[in-house]
Specification:
The chain is an alpha+beta fold. Helix content is 39%, strand content 20%. Strands 1, 4, 6, 7, 8, 11, 12, 13, 20, 21 and 22 form an eleven-stranded mixed β-sheet that branches. Strands 2-3-10-9 form a four-stranded mixed β-sheet, with no helix packed on it. It has a four-stranded antiparallel β-sheet with strand order 14-15-19-18, sandwiched between helices. It is elongated, with a radius of gyration of 32 Å.
């Protein structure tokens, strides 16, 4: 990485550290790795269908259910088994003209998309990774129904890459090319509806080793990898086209995978909050072990306390007993008093973890626990009665679930399992990133049983000549391009970075070479801000195409229109073609200008010079160069 970029990252790291309360990460033994999944802008990976997302009403739906089965290792994947137990129905939406039999899993995959493969190999070489000799497509079990086949196809392209950061080197053990999953549209406790337009879009997956030791380093790594991906010019842009999964652990914890991080700015917060969560869970574990002398003190005995709540103000309990003909079940948790309400992340407690498990595994709306009662329409008399029934002592806690009998039992099983895990500290699991940087339980950490060879795809041998050809055509890194813009075209640092990060950097370079009479900084500013400036000045939304900018700059470069009317011209592009608008603003010839100025001066003879200048400017603004107008007024107003 260049010195300019490194300095920027160091400054940003220092700023972030000042604005956030720091944990002692070296003492905690923080280890973090990141997986980045970037959509490639080609057709789909194993068919020729378009990779565009669609919003119109689908032409048909397919309904399926998934089953967990024994994998290559002779075991059933634990995460797949959890999903199977939910007994969910999966509905897939498709289109007649852009959804094929490969996507509905009615036909084997076609040959791998060569354009997507080319991009993946470019990325691998830019990461200084070693390309594999042969590409073997693998099947990776998917447990949430988002793939119609029940697995995701993925291929290892390269290994052992590396990047430098301001904190030190981070290894890139694997770079893969895989297919994206279906797009979730709606879901409830019984079903999920997916759209097949996203299924099969090529993804470049880049995984780092766990060498990241500080939250700010995560962002630096993700930002650099994102820059490399965009340097190819062949990746999709916009929300949802790139996703980050973060793996976090501390010395006394376990690896936790956080999925679905969308915003770069939230990555550091996700890591910080997960480190904080694991630290607090370790402290809870130590407190529990000091209280609990024998594991057999914990029992999964579920007791019905329904009659205790026959007359209660809690709407949750009343609805469960009335509409669902359910029950109120209680679970005693010896020695847990005061710990269930212990905060482990901002706004989230150990009780939240219990509730997450119950919601995900049993589909209940939530739980009650004794640390938060009396509350929610449950009075102290109800709490006392439940404690009496369960035989709770001072340090004992309890959990309540109100739902139909089967779901309530399943929910308490899930809570008990999570309570047992609290004695061991941190369970290894997959969690979903929330918008505020906290996380929510999704499923257990999948095991080795989820990956096995794809029998319907032929391995691809990569010859040296093909790889050598790619090496010769490697794109310039955007990081280097930004430095070049700054040095060669004399752009300010911020402007150089901004135009490079935008989708207009190639257009900018082309225009700089073509329009010699326009300063590069003016071209860059116009490309970046014209639409926003039009909206601000004229209260109009305009969408400008590359051809619009080109037409505008042709006239500006030739001196046929004035810069000061540029935004006014662009504001009218919704009303008629840009070419027709520009004609109305073409500058006068020197002879026409001289005639107009002479006429206006004559009509205002005897007026002060400033008055005459004002009248001339008001009538000829945008029709002639300002400097020429002043020169002519001076000539005729003597």
């Amino acid at each position: 990485m260049s010195g300019k970029k490194n300095n920027s990252n160091k400054d940003e790291k220092k700023l972030n550290a000042e604005n956030r309360s720091e944990l002692d990460y070296p003492k905690l033994g923080l280890k973090c790795g990141i997986e980045i999944h970037q959509q490639v802008d080609t057709n789909k990976l194993f068919c020729s269908c378009s990779s565009d997302l669609r919003e119109e009403t689908p032409d048909y739906t397919i309904t399926r259910r998934l089953r967990s089965v024994i994998g290559e290792t002779g075991e059933i994947d634990i995460a797949a088994l959890q999903e199977h137990r939910k007994e969910k129905k999966y509905i897939y939406e498709g289109y007649n003209d852009s959804t094929c039999l490969v996507e509905t899993d009615e036909e084997p995959p076609h040959k791998i998309n060569k354009d997507a493969l080319y991009v993946g190999l470019q990325v691998a070489l830019l990461m200084k990774a070693n390309i594999v000799d042969k590409i073997q497509v693998m099947r990776k079990t998917v447990v949430d129904g988002s793939n119609t086949s029940g697995f995701q196809r993925t291929s290892l392209l390269a290994m052992n890459g590396a990047i430098d950061t301001s904190f030190g080197k981070v290894g890139i053990p694997s770079i893969c090319l895989e297919e994206d999953s279906s797009r979730p549209i709606t879901q409830d406790s019984a079903s999920v509806t997916y759209r097949l337009d996203r299924l099969g879009i090529p993804l470049v997956e880049i995984a780092t080793d766990p060498a990241i030791t500080h939250p700010d380093q995560v962002r630096e790594v993700a930002e650099f990898i994102g820059m490399v991906l965009r340097s190819t010019g062949k990746v999709k842009r916009g929300l949802g086209t790139i996703r980050q999964d973060v793996n976090v652990s501390i010395a006394e914890g376990r690896r936790v995978e956080i999925k679905g991080a969308q915003e770069l700015k939230m990555l550091a917060t996700l890591v910080e909050y997960e480190a904080l969560r694991q630290k607090n869970l370790v402290e809870i574990k130590k407190e529990l072990l000091s209280r609990i002398k024998q594991m057999r003190e914990l029992s999964n005995e579920k007791i019905s306390v329904t009659e205790t709540f026959n007359n209660v103000e809690s709407n949750v309990i009343k609805n469960a007993l009335k509409d669902k003909k359910g029950a109120v079940l209680a679970l005693k948790l010896p020695k847990f008093a005061g710990l269930i309400a212990r905060e482990i992340q901002p706004g989230r407690r150990l009780g939240t973890e219990f509730s997450d498990r119950a919601k995900v595994i049993a589909g209940v709306g939530g739980i009650f626990h004794s640390d938060e009662l009396p509350k929610y329409g449950i009075e102290q008399e109800h709490v006392d009665r439940v404690r009496e029934i369960l035989g709770c002592k001072e340090q004992d806690a309890f959990i309540l679930v109100a739902d139909n009998g089967k779901k309530a039992e399943l929910a308490l099983d899930a809570v008990f399992e999570r309570a047992m895990q609290a004695l061991n500290g941190i369970p290894g699991e997959v969690r979903r990133a929330n918008e505020d940087g906290t996380t929510t339980y999704m499923r257990p950490m999948p095991g080795a049983a989820r990956l096995y060879p794809e029998t319907d795809a032929v391995p691809i041998s990569l010859d040296e000549k093909f790889v050598a050809e790619i090496k010769l055509k490697l794109p310039e890194l955007l990081l280097d391009k930004s430095d070049r813009f700054e040095d060669k075209h004399k752009l300010g640092h911020d402007l150089a970075v901004a135009i490079t990060k935008s989708s207009k950097h190639e257009l900018f370079e082309r225009f700089v070479e073509r329009f010699e009479n326009l300063k590069p900084a003016y071209l860059a500013e116009t490309l970046l801000t014209a639409e926003k400036q039009v909206k601000k000045q004229f209260m109009k939304e305009v969408v400008l195409k590359d051809a619009d900018f080109e037409e505008l700059f042709i006239y500006l470069n030739a001196g046929k229109i004035a810069k000061e009317v540029m935004l006014e011209i662009l504001s009218k592009t919704n009303e008629k073609p840009l070419q027709d608008v520009i004609v109305e603003y073409e500058l006068m010839s020197d002879a026409e200008l001289e005639k107009e100025v002479k006429q206006i001066v004559s009509e205002n003879k005897g007026q002060p010079f400033n008055v005459i200048i004002g009248k001339v400017m008001s009538q000829l603004r945008g029709k002639a160069d300002g400097k020429k107008i002043v020169e002519n007024v001076k000539r005729f107003a003597k």
